[in-house]
What we know:
The chain is built from 3 helices and 17 strands. It is mostly beta strands.
Amino acid sequence: MRFARYIALLLSSAAPAVAEDFSLSWPVECTLGDTCFIQHYVDDDPSGAASDYTCGKSTYNAHKGTDIRLRSRKDMEAGVKVLAAADGVVLGLRDGMDDVALNHANEADIKDKECGNGVVIRHAGGWDTQYCHMKRGTISVTKGARVTAGTPLGEIGLSGRTQFPHLHISVRKNGAQVDPFDPDGQITCGTPSQESLWDIDIPYSAGGVLAAGFSPTVPSFDTIKAGTADQPLAPDAAAIVFWTYAFGGQRGDILRMIITGPAGEIIRHDAVLEKDQAQFFRATGKKLRARQWPSGQYDGTAVLLRKDAMIGQSAATFTLP
């Protein structure tokens, strides 16, 4: 049976499942909140709207899994392992798709292969897990192989229908979608479910700051997403620019960026988001007004604020002789 047929099976509908004795271990070899981040959760709203298990906005309509993202393509290229979340048998897999962000040129090529390179594992009790967007040529298991929780399956990639390197992991029970953060499907807004399939405590992510750095000019978004935007500055650099890369932005959020130097604060800038943005960057800076910048340490601090509450932060520093 082909991989696409397994995917179709997993997308079939049925009644919500109860966790019973099934649990999931963390499926990525990374540190949550540092080298990887949860960007999207399952959409638990059956209507045309979208809401995650907290009734928050960290999802989108009809999203059927949990997205664990990396900071940049540079991290993806370095290699971040995807791990089996539970014991089971490899039911199907796909490899060979390129690691290219979705665009108009390749959209037709990924039709019916939106998962990209991936693996499906069958577990006891009618449970399945599906791992999508893996890196081409890294899948290290074969169909029919028995795996245990923590077995490497491959690496996070950029294959299939995606705009950033991440693992999309879906969970099914007897073919029905299950949100691992709310397996019984009983959600009360303001008091999210205390049940979870995860065997560790995973804090909720309402967005965050992925990276920050300095450069002599405003970098392009492509270089920021690639992880190559941080550039060294010379004492006579035409400007000092502090850039920040963030995700899960909502209209009205404030991205506060502050640069301090040897003599104190150089600039403070509040960038207000005018619309929801899944991923975005902002930059601030100051032009050189003298022959060169004062020698010493320069620090950049970025804080993402939502209704005065901090939901993410990052910092960068450099020193001029």
